[in-house]
Amino acid sequence: MFLFARVVLDNLLRQTRLSRLKQEIQPGVFPKGLEKTYDRVAARVLDQSSDDESKDALKALALVACANRILHWRKIQAFFYIHPARGHVEYEDCLGVTCKELCGAFFDTHSPSGETADPGGMVQMVHATARL
Q1: Is this prediction's pTM over 0.85?
Q2: What are the residue boundaries of the structural domains of the chain, listed by start?
Q3: In terms of domain of life, where is this protein from (predicted)?
Q4: Rounded distance, CA 123 to CA 73, Å?
Q5: Which residue would you say has higher pLDDT here, 47 or 64?
Q6: Three-state secondary structure along the chain?
C-alpha cells in the first residue's frame, strides 16, 4: 500500500501544470491499483514528453530494468555518451536532466550527498513490480 501511495504522489508532484494535476485527480482518471498507477507514470514519462526525452527515458529504463544490481548515475550517463561502435566518447551526449526528471516514479535514488543529480548516486527500479 505504501508503494502505491509513493508512486501516485510522485506522479502527482511531477505534473508541470495545474490543469494536468486537476485532470490526474479526477475520479474517473485517478488510478486504482499499482498496475494502473505504473501505466499513468509511463504515459507521463513516455507519451507526454518530446520524442528525444521519450527515447532517452526508454533507454534508461531498459538499462536499469535489465541490470542485476543497483547502478550509479554516472554509469547510466556513460551509457549515453560512450559510443563503442564509433570508438569514442562524446561528452555532449551526456544527459542534462536527473534520472528522476527523466523517468519519474520508476526510479528510486540514493545519494551519499543527498542530491538527486549526484554522479555518485545510486539508481534502481522503485520496486520489482515496476520491471513488468
Answers
A1: no
A2: 2-131
A3: Eukaryota
A4: 6
A5: 64
A6: CHHHHHHHHHHHHCCCCHHHHHHHCCCCCCCCCHHHHHHHHHHHHHHCCCHHHHHHHHHHHHHHHHCCCCEEHHHHHHHHHEECCCCEECHHHCCCCCHHHHHHHHEEEECCCCCCCCCCCEEEECCHHHHC
